[in-house]
Amino acid sequence: MAINIKAMNSKSNISNYNCGGFALRTHDWYCPDAWMRCRNNSFDTEQEVYNLFEDCVNDMLKDFPRLTRISHPEDYTGNETLVGFRFAILDSDDFADEDAMEEANDEYDRNEGDIYYAADDFHFVTRVEGTWYHKPGSNFIEVYEGDPTDECQEWEHYPCTYNSEIAWFVYK
Fold it and tell me: Where are the domains of the chain?
């Protein structure tokens, strides 16, 4: 039986949890500890952002013993509950106009012309009984439009573009 989105979205606490709380079944706002420690940091290399990503994955595995990391969801074709996790990574070239670049330089304590990377946001998707769902921030739960398993496709959910590698998990 698929998720009854209408019933879940009518609950009064829908705005009290994010995509992580939905995908990981806490129905609370979930942010990995590593994210909370580093979310406003900028990084000199993409490797540093990748290290933060892996630290977040390790936090999730510690926080949720029923999660097991898997290589790709195509290995699980049944009714297993799957979870995907991804970052929205910005680099200094992503700030097209001068005002946005100046604001980002101030936010990340950088100088004009610096090249840097930032983990701007994260997002979770979950597959329940063959259907992919997500919950953008404090908004309503939705059926995920498109194929979140296609690693060549970014996950586009305003205001972010989730473009990192994807960490996949099976929820047992």
Answer: 5-171
DSSP string for 72-86: -GGG--SS-EEEEEE
Is the pTM here over 0.90, yes or no?
no
Evaluate the CA torsion angle 133, 135, 136, 139 in order and state its sign. positive
How many whole angstroms separate alpha carbon 42 and alpha carbon 119?
8
Write out 7-70 in H/E/C secondary structure. HHHCCCCHHHCCHHHHHCCCCCCCCCHHHHHHCCCCECCHHHHHHHHHHHHHHHHHHCCCEEEE
Compute how many other C-beta atoms are within 10 angstroms of the C-beta atom of residue 29. Answer: 14
Mind listing the pLDDT tens digit for each residue in 152-161? 899 988 788 8
* φ, ψ dihedrals at 127, nearest 5°: -110, 120
Q: How far is CA 41 from the centre of its chain?
A: 17
Residues 55-81: tens digit of each pLDDT: 999 999 999 999 999 999 988 877 889
